[in-house]
């Protein structure tokens, strides 16, 4: 029979043994303050790279920008970026910036195209980070583009407006116009005017100052122009205004006086429209130049009255087909050239076939710039419509500014 004292001593002894065992187990497991831990972040385990690679177009996205899509990294430097057309594997050329922080394609991407980007970077310790994205750029159906004139780097006449023609109807005109800014070194106020829903022109109150530089900033990428339709353009365009040349055609006298920088260069005979096919009055801007071009009356509303394949020294004044051009087919007899109007609305200058030789038409062609102004007066016809060509100068300043959306 066991006494109570003996039983109590046995229980205490067992407890002591358990404590010793627990201490032993703790010692075998290592101290909680040891320099090496259990592999979850200790100095002997690999850590994640501090470089963070971000591709602007998210994986699986549609509607990606054709201008701003690219790659950036923080906490490291890009080491390699490959961009391809998904499916075909066609490479898209691009370049990593000098500091290794970004990459972008060398050119504009195509609309409605699926691309893939694979990018890798390293942090200061050489650890690698990577990112991948397969995405599709904004489709043609869901985007709009504006073709514009004049071209970047060009030199133009004092009458040249900035003119945009959009390939989609614009319903949010304010949003679109506010993302196109036009400024001049002359300090002239420049205002936009909408002709309908697809054309936006900019001009100052008076002709541009000769010798000034005009800069146009287009920031339409991602701008919503209509329901579900977004812009895709982002660029800066600059052009220079040349000397001031304004030529005045007087239909009464069948002459044209050419003035440059306020001084008369020359007065020359012209042949304006006939009594049946009169020439528009008003200020018209040269928008195109052709050493030779075909003119077919059927394309501008006439019948088979004329079709001349080699009209020399032709310069367009209206969209509807008014040109100032060389004329080699006039009657060389009586009356001589410049005594009466014989054209179908154009302004003719004496010339020879083949656009060769020292002729009045060649002289005027050689001395004219896109954007020069030709004014027609004293014609029995009406004043040309402001949107028939680049001819917004035929609108009062108050009417022009009333057509601005901003």
What are the key terms here?
406 residues; mainly beta; five-stranded mixed β-sheet; four-stranded antiparallel β-sheet; 4 helices; 28 strands; 38% strand; elongated; disordered N terminus
Structure description:
Helix content is 11%, strand content 38%. With 406 residues, it is mainly beta. It has a five-stranded mixed β-sheet, with no helix packed on it. Strand 25 and strand 26 form a beta hairpin. The protein is elongated and about 95 Å long. The N and C termini lie far apart (109 Å). Mean pLDDT is 88; it is low at 1-45.
List the helices and strands and how they pair.
Elements: H1 4-29, E1 52-55, E2 62-64, E3 71-74, E4 77-85, E5 94-96, E6 102-105, E7 114-122, E8 128-137, E9 143-144, E10 146-149, E11 155-156, E12 162-166, H2 173-177, E13 180-184, E14 190-195, E15 199-204, E16 213-219, E17 224-226, E18 229-231, E19 234-241, E20 245-250, E21 255-260, E22 263-269, E23 282-285, E24 288-296, E25 307-316, E26 323-327, E27 347-350, H3 360-366, E28 373-377, H4 397-402
Parallel strand pairs: 2-8, 9-18, 11-19, 20-28, 26-27
Antiparallel strand pairs: 1-3, 3-6, 4-7, 5-6, 7-8, 10-12, 12-15, 13-16, 14-15, 16-19, 17-18, 20-21, 21-22, 23-28, 24-25, 25-26
**Helix/strand structural class:** mainly beta
Helix content: 10-25%
Question: Strand arrangement, largest sheet?
Answer: 22-21-20-28-23
The biggest sheet amounts to: 5 strands, mixed
* pLDDT < 50 stretches: 1-45
Q: How many helices in DSSP terms?
A: 4
β-strand amount: 35-45%
Can you tell me the overall shape? elongated
Over all CA atoms, what is the radius of gyration? 37 Å
Question: Which whole number gives the mean pLDDT?
Answer: 88
Count of strand segments: 28
Q: Ends: how far apart?
A: 109 Å
